[in-house]
Design brief:
It is a multi-pass membrane protein. The protein is mainly alpha-helical. It is built from 14 helices and no strands. α5 crosses α12.
Length: about 425
């Protein structure tokens, strides 16, 4: 074993640093989910950088495309060079271009920097989740994955609260400066406190083999990957579609606008609860059983929201239930993916799953917006989202709970 390998492996058997650092990496993802939405009203009202409504839409879409490409491409890098170095590089790339966004002179550079920052950020999620699934104790990989993803929602909430104070006093640029500085502050800790994954070292010790994206679709893995991709697409379509349009859909149903915003908060509270519960269920009952139950209940809960309910308590309870199952269903897809694929291509498989899912993240708000524009968001918006959950259920139903041992790497057998 080389001295570099010995150093990288040191400390992987215990300690909280990997848990804390991967969780913090997910808070950066949560920051990015809401930062553009937080600054769009200011950019629009002030005509900042020459932005128009159309170019702001382009900025949002192109940023998500960067995240999608980053997620797809990083898996092969992490499977070749390691989870640790890949995560450090991703955070550095994201931090540089997020911080620099605060100083751009025009909308073209703003959009370009959002795209490049998205490449780094999109790579963070699959790399961090791959790391945590391998770092977790035996029988707790799903819980480790879902707990790590709570950082995503915490980051979104913190950034939303910061935006309320920072933008009026310091301008929209301050949010991007804070986001970049937070990433810079995280890098030294990642470098000095994050050891390499034991699973990666066991497979790669003495070699640096190139991993091809095509390896996740070879043989029987083709059908498995298609099922995972369909579910991931539908899962993120639900997450982004509901986060974008739930207040508007509920207002069309006759609820107050302020009530719609409160229901959005309730939905995300349910998401955090679901992340803690779902991982434990998956570890105890199996990944496939858990993810099928979560998407199945999500489909039913979303369909029931199409019914106008007079009791405010029942409405909030129904939305909370939807949040518990809808949001964590997508995270269970990641946990299921990490469980199915061998360590040699695990990050590649997770990256592809996250990348395809990001296409759903783009389509969800687009679908919701189209229905709102057509005046049919209520009740058909809930029917459409329920159908997405049902499609994910069907796609995963045909994915095996485990892969045969002869399709796994020796270290995973």
């Amino acid at each position: 074993m080389s001295s570099h390998t010995a150093v990288a492996r040191a400390g992987t058997s215990s300690g909280l640093w990997p848990v804390i650092l991967c969780w913090l990496a997910m808070t950066l993802d949560g920051f990015d989910m809401v930062v553009l939405g937080a600054v769009i009203p200011t950019l629009d009202s002030e005509n900042a950088l020459g932005f128009t409504t159309a170019s702001l839409t382009s900025a949002a879409t192109i940023g998500l495309i960067g995240v999608m490409i980053g997620a797809v491409m990083t898996g092969a890098v992490a499977d070749r060079f390691g989870r640790r170095l890949t995560l450090v590089a991703c955070v550095i790339l994201f931090s540089i271009f997020t911080f620099a966004t605060a100083f751009v002179p025009n909308k073209e550079m703003f959009i370009a920097f959002r795209f490049i920052a998205g490449l780094g950020l999109g790579a963070c999620l699959p790399t961090a989740l791959t790391y945590m699934s391998e770092y977790a104790k035996a029988g707790s990989a799903s819980s480790a994955t879902t707990r790590t993803m709570t950082g995503y929602h915490v980051g979104a909430v913190i950034t939303s609260l910061m935006a309320l104070w920072l933008i009026p006093h310091w301008g929209w640029e301050s949010l991007f400066m804070i986001g970049g500085l937070a990433g810079f502050a995280l890098v030294p800790f990642l470098w000095f406190k994050l050891p390499e994954s034991d699973s990666f070292l066991a497979v790669k010790e003495g070699t640096v083999a190139k991993v091809k994206l095509s390896e996740v679709v070879k043989g029987r893995l083709l059908a498995v990957s298609i099922g995972i991709w369909v579910a991931s697409f539908m899962g993120l379509l639900l997450v982004y579609g509901l986060n974008t349009w739930l207040p508007k859909i509920m207002s069309e149903a006759g609820y107050s606008v302020s009530g719609g915003v409160a229901l959005l908060l309730t939905l995300n509270v349910g998401a955090v609860i679901g992340l803690f519960v779902s991982g434990k269920v998956a570890d105890e009952r199996g990944n496939k059983k858990a993810v099928l139950v979560w998407f199945g209940v999500a489909a039913v809960a979303l369909a029931l929201l199409s019914i106008k309910i007079e009791s405010q308590f029942v409405v909030y309870a129904a939305v909370l239930l939807a949040g518990v199952f809808v949001f964590s269903a997508q995270v269970l897809v990641y946990a299921f993916t990490a469980h199915l694929y061998p360590a040699r291509i695990r990050a590649t498989a997770l990256g592809m799953s996250a990348g395809v899912g990001r296409v759903g993240a783009i389509m969800g708000p687009t679908l919701g917006g189209a229905m709102v524009g057509a005046g049919v968001a209520y009740p058909w918006g809930f029917y459409a989202f329920a159908a997405a959950a049902a499609i994910a259920f069907v796609a995963l139903f045909f994915v095996p709970a485990h892969l045969p041992l002869d399709e796994k790497a020796p270290a995973d057998a």
